[in-house]
Q: What sequence folds into this?
């Protein structure tokens, strides 16, 4: 599975994130996802995470999995077309 740049993903805790870019770690060449929250945060406006972590499975029965998702982040196609143009630089 590979991340789709320019799309919106939902985290299993319910928040939405715009995928800005995929970069390579300068030492390991591991793919890193650069993304921004689609809600107001005080700590950061841009985040980075290993691509492999995006598609980790959420342990069954985890109480903070309010969406019931199987994966940490899942593509939210219905929001991607509406939001993508508004959040680009």
A:
């Amino acid at each position: 599975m590979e991340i789709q740049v320019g799309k919106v993903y939902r985290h299993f805790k319910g928040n939405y994130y715009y995928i800005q870019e995929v970069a390579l770690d300068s030492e390991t060449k591991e793919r890193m996802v650069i993304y921004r929250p689609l809600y107001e945060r005080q700590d950061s406006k841009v985040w980075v995470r290993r691509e492999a972590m995006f598609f980790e499975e959420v342990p069954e029965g985890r109480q903070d999995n309010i969406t019931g998702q199987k994966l940490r982040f899942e593509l939210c196609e219905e929001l991607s077309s509406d939001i993508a143009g508004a959040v680009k630089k």
Observations:
- The mean pLDDT is 88.
- The first helix runs from residue 51 to 54.
- The CA atoms of residues 29 and 61 lie 34 Å apart.
- The chain is about 15% helix and 30% strand.
